[in-house]
């Protein structure tokens, strides 16, 4: 039986029932290999808008993606700051890798560039980490995996992120996790084999990290055809947006 992802709060009902939104308001953005998505969230992570999306440029250089983000940002107003989930290694707002975007992202100051363009405070983190913040319980060892163009990963202990994990690029079998579980693997091996590899990867990550809970998100979760077992949860693709509030927990 195919597992169903957890359903996020429906934005129109959140707006109806929330009353005056709790500030600050975050514009939360998820940069993906196929789409750039965004939503407004209040201080408690309640959605204040519908999710908006524009396609990721065919050649996703920094300049091309920034132009797409400008189009996305133009659909929103009234926010106080911005959170961005980016598919690569991030340190101090600088993108160091972007295997599924473009080589020009190496050493690109994305956070500073967005602050300059939009005149708002911005924080950038790995996209799987942001998704994890939107999914984890904050208890024990928790691992998140995102299955999309590539394979993202983030590890948490008692709700605290262990930064820098790129499990997707770690050697596995004869290639890497991402080669089997990213879009390339799905297209090359087919849905049946892809599911077999995912089942094996769940067992391997359990043996490697001894996680208490595993959360699997991303657009390709809809391709999963088996029950992933106890302590494994399929989460909504929108978790990559809802976790954006966590980047501003220290905001006063």
Describe what this molecule looks like in 3D.
The strands form four sheets. This protein has a five-stranded mixed beta sheet with strand order 3-2-1-4-7. Mean pLDDT is 90; it is low at 1-11. The longest helix is centred in the last third of the chain and has 19 residues, at 191-209. It has two domains: 11-129 and 240-248, 2-Layer Sandwich (Nucleotidyltransferase, domain 5), CATH 3.30.420; 137-239, ATPase, nucleotide binding domain (Nucleotidyltransferase, domain 5, 2-Layer Sandwich). The chain is built from eight helices and 14 strands. Helix 6 packs across helix 7. 28% of the residues lie in helices and 24% in strands. The protein has helices spanning 11-18, 62-73, 110-118, 127-133, 177-181, 183-189, 191-209, 239-242; strands at 26-31, 35-41, 52-55, 81-86, 90-91, 94-95, 122-126, 141-147, 151-157, 160-162, 171-172, 175-176, 213-217, 232-234. Strand 9 (151-157) and strand 10 (160-162) form a beta hairpin. The protein is α/β, with parallel strands linked by helices.
């Amino acid at each position: 039986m195919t597992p169903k992802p957890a359903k996020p709060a429906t934005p129109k009902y959140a707006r109806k029932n929330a009353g005056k939104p709790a500030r600050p308001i975050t514009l939360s953005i998820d940069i993906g290999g196929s789409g750039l998505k965004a939503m407004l969230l209040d201080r408690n992570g309640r959605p204040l808008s519908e999710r908006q999306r524009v396609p990721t440029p065919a050649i996703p250089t920094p300049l091309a993606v920034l132009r797409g983000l400008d189009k996305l940002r133009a659909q929103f107003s009234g926010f106080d700051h911005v959170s961005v989930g980016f598919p690569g290694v991030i340190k101090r707002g600088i993108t160091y890798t972007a295997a599924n975007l473009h080589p020009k992202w190496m050493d690109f100051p994305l956070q500073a560039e967005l602050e300059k363009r939009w005149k708002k405070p911005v924080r950038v983190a790995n996209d799987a980490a942001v998704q994890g913040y939107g999914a984890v319980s904050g208890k024990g060892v928790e691992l998140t995996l995102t299955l999309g163009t590539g394979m993202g990963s983030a590890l948490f202990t008692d709700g605290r992120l262990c930064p820098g994990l790129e499990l997707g690029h770690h050697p596995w079998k004869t290639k890497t996790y991402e080669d089997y579980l990213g879009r390339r693997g799905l297209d090359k091996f087919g849905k049946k084999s892809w599911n077999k590899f995912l089942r094996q990867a769940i067992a391997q990550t359990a043996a490697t990290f001894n996680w208490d809970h595993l959360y699997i998100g991303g657009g390709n979760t809809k391709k999963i055809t088996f029950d992933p077992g106890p302590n494994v949860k399929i989460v909504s693709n929108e978790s990559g947006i809802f976790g954006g509030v966590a980047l501003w927990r220290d905001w006063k």
